[in-house]
Design brief:
Number of strands: 5
Order of helices and strands: HEEHEEE
Number of helices: 2
Strand content: 25-35%
Distance between the termini: 65 Å
Helix content: 25-40%
Shape: elongated
Strand order of the largest sheet: 1-2-5-3-4
Radius of gyration: 19 Å
């Protein structure tokens, strides 16, 4: 009986490449246990960019600014509306900040409302 080898990759090399990539992405002075990432999110008919930032050193305004920067980088236009949790409500110039019950803490949804 012969055994079929399904994966012929070098896992050690893959792991080292992943560690090198993560070290390159890490910002100086930032703890490893904090996360920041973007994801696409749809609410009703509107498309939003979701931004998750659980760094306790960032204020809600900093989180919103990071989300807006990621939105502009990804889509090339500035968003018009920001959806946040009621605990993180703040005023930001240039966008309308709304509170939504379904938006969880540390999540910011940025997008353009169609109507």
């Amino acid at each position: 009986m012969t055994m079929t080898k399904y994966h012929s990759c070098d896992w050690t090399a893959r792991r080292e490449r992943a560690r090198a990539f993560l070290a390159q992405q890490r910002k100086p002075g930032r703890a490893w246990n904090t996360l920041t990432y973007a994801f696409d999110y749809t609410v009703e008919d509107d498309m939003y960019l979701g931004w998750y930032d659980d760094n306790p050193k960032h204020t809600p305004a900093d989180k919103i600014a990071g989300a807006i920067a990621a939105y502009v980088l990804r889509y090339g236009v500035a968003p018009t509306v920001v959806l946040v949790n009621e605990a993180e409500l703040t005023q930001v110039a240039g966008v309308e900040v709304r509170v939504d019950a379904y938006t969880r803490r540390n999540n910011v949804l940025v997008g353009m409302v169609t109507a």
